């Protein structure tokens, strides 16, 4: 019999949780295709290494942007590969729970479930990422207490206030880690006349990027292509420059948190002062982000222990009691 699976189908990374086994797959949401033959050449880490380094007839693409499917066929093929790597065949079709951003539309939700079913799932249900993150973080979501989760992903950022097993207030913006990377690329191009790739921008963000001043800051050497001469060129970037470059997307994320707090009932708002807010998602690991949000909201912010795995772990707990927790899933079967 097939093991039930939970999939965190993220814009940046895809994680798969198998019932009784834990996390069995953690790969970048990238797939490499030969455009001439239509063959899939690689997926995950192997395909991620190809971004910006392939000949013209090979493309390394992310089939999801801002939490939504941009190419249905490629997404379906990627999910099929994920299921195969998790040990699924046409003879053992599992039930699947897929974590999706709350910001996506009903049409986009149907596209995700349809892609999963065509890829080999016997049944596919969706759960909102903030709810899954709260479960994965071990918060007391069924108690009459305020549980605030800030989920910063690759393409979307969501803030949810949860109490008594339901979402009391929710704010979602289609801004995430990729927008931070794009801001770094734009800044370097504008200020230094150098073009850098997506992977280089991400490396800069990880190395010296921060949303709030941190201790022991160091400068970083950046290599790129000079736009005037076309020759390789080096520049030295200061952490303060990167902080200024990414201020716009960071401010959008912080503003969404403040807007969600503005929707909180007074009693739950009082709880938050004591309990604080919890930061999850890969984007939440940006240095100083918790301090920036805490400074602007005057509420403590805590980065959870496993921010990247938190969502899929929460969905994994749901599949352990799939039928009993059906109320948490969005919509009926289609």
Write out key terms for the chains shown.
single chain; 334 residues; alpha+beta; Nucleotidyltransferase, domain 5; Actin, Chain A, domain 4; 3 domains; five-stranded mixed sheet; 18 strands; flat; disordered C terminus
What's this entry about, in short?
With 334 residues, the chain is α+β, with helices and mostly antiparallel strands. Helices cover 36% and strands 27% of the residues.
Largest sheet: 5 strands, mixed
Looking at the structure, the CATH topology of the largest domain is Nucleotidyltransferase, domain 5
Oligomeric organization of the protein chains: single chain
Strand content: 25-35%
User: How many domain modules?
Assistant: 3
Q: Helicity, in percent?
A: 25-40%
The SS-based structural class is: alpha+beta
The count of strands amounts to 18
Round the Cα radius of gyration to an integer and report it. Answer: 20 Å
Following the backbone from N to C, one meets helices and strands in this order, namely EEEEEHEEEHEHEHEEEHEHEEHHHEHEH
Which CATH top level class of the largest domain fits? Alpha Beta
Q: Could you give the order of strands across the largest sheet?
A: 3-2-1-9-10
């Amino acid at each position: 019999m097939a093991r039930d699976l939970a999939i965190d189908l993220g814009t940046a990374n895809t994680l798969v949780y198998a019932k009784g086994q834990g996390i069995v797959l953690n790969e970048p949401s990238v797939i490499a295709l030969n455009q001439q033959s239509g063959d899939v050449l690689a997926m995950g880490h192997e395909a991620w290494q190809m971004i910006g380094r392939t000949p013209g007839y090979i493309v390394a693409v992310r089939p999801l942007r801002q939490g939504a499917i941009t190419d249905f066929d490629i997404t379906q093929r990627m999910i099929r590969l994920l299921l195969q790597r998790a040990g699924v065949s046409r003879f053992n079709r599992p039930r699947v729970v897929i974590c999706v951003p709350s910001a996506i539309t009903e049409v986009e939700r149907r596209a995700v479930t349809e892609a999963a079913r065509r890829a080999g799932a016997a049944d596919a249900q969706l759960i909102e990422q903030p709810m899954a993150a709260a479960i994965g973080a071990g918060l007391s979501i069924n108690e009459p207490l305020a549980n605030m989760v800030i989920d910063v992903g690759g393409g979307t950022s969501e803030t949810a206030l949860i109490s008594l097993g339901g979402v009391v207030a929710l704010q979602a913006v289609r801004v995430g880690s990729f927008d931070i990377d794009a801001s770094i690329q734009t800044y370097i191009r504008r200020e230094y006349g150098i073009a850098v790739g997506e992977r280089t921008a991400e490396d800069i963000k990880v190395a010296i990027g921060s949303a709030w001043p941190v201790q022991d800051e160091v400068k970083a050497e950046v290599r790129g292509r000079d736009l005037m001469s076309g020759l390789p060129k080096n520049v030295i970037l200061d952490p303060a420059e990167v902080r200024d470059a990414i201020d716009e997307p960071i401010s959008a994320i912080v503003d969404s948190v403040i807007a969600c707090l503005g929707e909180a009932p007074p009693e739950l708002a009082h709880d938050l002062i004591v309990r604080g807010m919890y930061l999850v998602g890969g984007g939440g690991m940006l240095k100083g982000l918790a301090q920036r949000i805490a400074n602007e909201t005057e509420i403590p912010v805590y980065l959870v222990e496993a921010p990247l795995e938190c969502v899929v772990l929460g969905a994994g707990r749901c599949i352990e009691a799939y039928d009993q927790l059906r109320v948490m899933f969005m919509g009926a079967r289609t």
